[in-house]
Hints:
Layout: E1 5-8, H1 17-31, H2 42-61, H3 67-80, H4 87-100, H5 111-120, E2 124-129, H6 133-142, E3 149-154, H7 155-158, H8 165-175, E4 182-185, E5 190-197, E6 200-206, H9 215-226
Parallel strand pairs: 1-2, 1-4, 2-3
Antiparallel strand pairs: 5-6
Helix pairs in contact: 1-4, 2-3, 3-4, 5-9
Amino acid sequence: MKYPHVFFDLDHTLWDFETNSRKTLASLFETNDLASKGVPDFDQFFERYTYHNHRLWDRYTKGFIKQDELRWKRMWLTLLDFKLADESLSRSLGIQFLEQLPEQKSLFPYTIEILTYLKEKKYRMHLVTNGFEKVQHHKIQQANLAQFFEQVITSEASNSLKPNKEIFEYALQKAGASMEESIMIGDNVVVTIVDIRGDKVRLGIVAPNEVPVHRQEVYEAIKRDAR
């Protein structure tokens, strides 16, 4: 096999972050009675949260803000959009969100089938994720994904963030793999030159949320291949 080591991202690739976060936030909206505090509609709340979360995650991955600021300020900014300036509530929501989110189990279609196929074919699989150490490990256990992966590399454990090269170097070291025998599968559309050797250029490519990911077609192709 050309790439015996397969590195996956977790959120937005295997674990359906959008669905799972929506379920968690819907629960928080009800249990914290946000409607009575001036947030009239859950869909509006979720839309504003999603906007601020994406923006702050971008700043976090670029090293402009720290974990703690990300965790509570996405709630703070969301509530501010509804003229609710309550830091205590924002911090509480941030804690509740990270406690409840990993309990969710929604995966993208055919995730288990594809991982099972790769495991049966003796591919060595690993996870590389920008998520928090405790949260990501809890997600993996709850979603029954731990059985598939040898190494789980988080930004917190590696002290680096994707797409910085240091986290991938750390991942290769932990997995005992070389770049030539490894491939990364993720969710953001970023094309980078991984290696240049003579007239050969190796590119790394990953696909964004708004770009269709044809998982059923991939699965069917894999099954045809295996016949």
